[in-house]
Amino acid sequence: MLRIDLRHLRRSRTLPLEARIDSDDEVWAGSQLTFAEAVEVAGSVAPTADGGVVVRGAWEAALLYDCSRCLEQLKVVVTRPLTLVYMPADGWEVADPDVRTIGYQQTMLDLTDAIREEIVLEVPRYLLPSEEDGRCVECGDPVDRFNHVTEETGIDPRWSALQSLKTD
């Protein structure tokens, strides 16, 4: 998938990174994310002076969310910068979670798991669209339509069935 030939990288000094990870790819299994389209990754890969590798670029993912207000399915595009740092395992002593290690004799570097991790940690789990002029910016419905809290109890009556389960 996203594999970099480290021998070729050392010869050319920089390599472009252009990749697509399909929305139904097995790499997303267990992530609980629903992608509308393939995830796009673009950037460059460069070696460091001490034998490491730096990946810089950005990723873009179109996700499908159920709106927390109207429960309609919405497509939201998330774009974030991407920076991955790999250092040789031999000389790296500090336990820095932002730095990954590579073996000294390693010839191929697979970026798939690192990019999956970045995306899964960055995208929001739920979507509550903002409001503008009292309307939801995604569906356009008045926000008051989704507010069912009564003023006298301060509780949404749709949750009243749970009151009978309360023991004190």
Short description:
By secondary structure, the chain is mainly beta.
Keywords:
168 residues, mainly beta, 2 domains, five-stranded mixed sheet, two-stranded antiparallel ribbon, 3 helices, elongated
Description:
- This protein is mainly beta and 168 residues long.
- The protein folds into 2 domains: 3-128, no CATH class; 131-168, no CATH class.
- Helix content is 13%, strand content 36%.
- It has 3 helices and 9 strands, in the order βαββββββαββα.
- The protein has helices at 6-12, 112-122, 160-163; strands at residues 3-5, 15-21, 39-47, 53-66, 73-88, 99-102, 108-110, 131-132, 135-136.
- The strands form 3 sheets. The chain has a 5-stranded mixed sheet with strand order 2-3-4-5-6. Strands 1-7 form a two-stranded antiparallel ribbon.
- A hairpin with a 5-residue loop joins β3 (39-47) and β4.
- The protein is elongated and about 70 Å long.
- The relative contact order is 0.17.
Give the number of helices: 3
Could you give the count of β-strands?
A: 9
Residue share in β-strands = 35-45%
**Number of separate structural domains:** 2
Topology:
Blueprint (H helix, E strand, L loop, with lengths): L2 E3 H7 L2 E7 L17 E9 L5 E14 L6 E16 L10 E4 L5 E3 L1 H11 L8 E2 L2 E2 L23 H4 L5
Parallel strand pairs: 5-6
Antiparallel strand pairs: 1-7, 2-3, 3-4, 4-5, 8-9
